[in-house]
Amino acid sequence: MTPAAESPSGLVVVDKPGGWTSFDVVARMRRLAGTRRVGHAGTLDPMATGVLVIGVGKATRLLGHLALTGKVYEATVRLGETTSTDDAEGEPLVSTAADGLDEDAVRAALEAFRGEITQVPPQISAIKVDGKRSYARARAGETVELASRTVTVSRLDLGAVRRHDGLLDLDVEIACSSGTYIRSIARDLGEALGVGGHLTGLRRTAVGPYTLDEARTLEQLVDNLEMLPLDRAVALGFPRVDVEADDARRFVHGIRLPAAGLGPGPVGVFGPGGELLALAEDRAGELRSLCVFVG
User: Distance from first CA to last CA of the chain, Å, rounded?
Assistant: First the structure.
């Protein structure tokens, strides 16, 4: 009997459409790839569009590590109105005239959101509180006390500024660490300026090294399921260490190697022929495997 062909493995960089949840995209990709072994690295809100990294087959092992990489967003913040979800999908709460705000005052307020900052996640978020998602508790009428978290905003650039109907819309580009809520920045910026604020548009343009240049729409993927092979995905997403044949054999059988010295975080380990062996990290002076892709 001919053995069944192994399911394909790799990363798919999807340009997520607005109105879709990340799980909606995963469900579509399961049908396109013909396997249930599909996941995503870093959730995008339904309103948001842009880069959603999908792992298929063995590439699902990478997703937890890719989710921790930096992100880049293009966003529109509306000053002068708060909402129940801190974005345009929520119910309007309080309106305060903001079109008279001086642009210099806005720029000065943005300074507080650069660098290492502390923020409280939105009530409508996937954070678990006593085993239940915050959004589920909030939609059931509960007021959820969420702990503040420290995140890093490495870049926050102000683009176009538009005034209309008592409101002030700001286009911003944000490069930030994993776990940063752009909705919280919009909310807190509005509060700092005394007029309230929320997010009206969000597009993720990069997750680590994966950008919109590599992204494909779902319609394009129906016609051609472009998948980044596992070895190339790891080489793009992580530092690389190449080992000789003897060390390669030892490593895939669980024997640790001397530390690679490439700094904290995962590294891709490749054999003498350029084949991907494993994802690993330096710990206590040794290179230890996190997940092995051969054998």
Answer: 22
Q: What share of the chain is helix, strand, coil (3-state, %, to 5)?
A: 25, 40, 40
CA distances from 152 to 70, 149, 276 (A): 9, 10, 32
Q: Are 255 and 246 in contact (CB under 8 A)?
A: no
Tally of CB atoms within 10 A around 97: 13
Bridge partners (DSSP) of residue 267 are 280
Beta bridge partners of 15: 51
Q: What is the mean pLDDT of residues 15-27?
A: 94
Question: pTM (2 decimals)?
Answer: 0.88
| Positions marked active-site | 45
Rounded Cα gap, residues 247 and 252, in angstroms: 9
Helical axes 103-110 vs 182-192, angle rounded to 10°: 130
Distance CA 226, CA 43 (A): 21
pLDDT digits (tens, 9 = 90+) for 207-253: 988 999 989 999 999 999 989 999 999 998 889 999 999 999 988 88
Question: What are the C-alpha distances in Å from 18 to residues 44, 170, 202?
Answer: 10, 20, 9
Is there a contact between 50 and 44 (Cβ–Cβ < 8 Å)? yes
Task: Tell me which residue of 73, 20, 16, 28 sits closest to 46, measured CA to CA.
Answer: 20
Q: What letters, b where the CB count within 10 A reaches 16 and e where it falls short, cover 190-229?
A: bebbebbbbbbbbbbbbbbebebebbbebeebeeebebbe
Reported as a single tens digit per residue, the pLDDT across 30-73 is 999 999 999 998 888 899 999 999 999 989 988 888 877 899 99
